[in-house]
Amino acid sequence: MKFKFISLCLFIGVLAILTSCGDKGEEQAPGNAADLEGYQAHLNEVFSESDHLLSVYSTALDGLYTGEVSEEQFSTLLRKEVISQSNELVSLVESYNASPTIFELNQQLATFANNQHQLFLDSIDMANEERMNKTTLRDNLIKIKDEQASFINAWKVL
């Protein structure tokens, strides 16, 4: 339920940004194109790392389903290979010096990065408490991927 609410807020926020940006043609400030190009490079880096982390997570989760990975191995893998990189990704997004043109968009990206990081933390917590619910984890992974796709599609519209 929490992820649905956050996803809905993210989607509404992106839509609000997109409708406020509109097509202003000649009225755009000269720096806006440079801001958008710089932000595109930032997004490429963020989503490249995000895709990598989600791939590692998804593979480990698949291993839980197939029995190739135990809950303890799953937790260890996330602690050793995902959490620190995810934390660095959150820091990268939150420390980005966004211009006013893209400030709100970057706030939405920070929400996405934090939601993804929380998925990883919740997964470790479940494994440590021996209360794994693979279906919940898979559903939450799909929600994170949907958030990512919505953000990318909204960016393409700009």
Structure description:
- With 158 residues, the protein is mainly α.
- It has one domain (36-157).
- The chain is built from 5 helices and no strands.
- The protein has helices spanning 2-21, 31-66, 71-95, 103-128, 134-157.
- Helix 1 runs antiparallel to helix 4 and helix 2 (31-66) runs antiparallel to helix 3 (71-95).
- The longest helix is centred in the N-terminal third of the chain and has 36 residues, at 31-66.
- Mean pLDDT is 84; it is low at 7-20 and 22-30.
Helix-strand layout with pairing:
Layout: H1 2-21, H2 31-66, H3 71-95, H4 103-128, H5 134-157
Helix pairs in contact: 1-4, 1-5, 2-3, 2-5, 3-4, 4-5
Number of helices: 5
Beta-strand percent range = under 5%
Q: How would a textbook summarize the main sheet?
A: none
Shape: elongated
- Poorly predicted runs of 5 or more residues: 7-20, 22-30
The computed structural class is: mainly alpha
SSE series: HHHHH
The termini sit apart by 30 Å
Q: How many strand segments? A: 0
Radius of gyration: 17 Å
How many domains? 1
- In percent, how helical is the residue content? over 70%
On the 0 to 100 scale, the average pLDDT is: 84
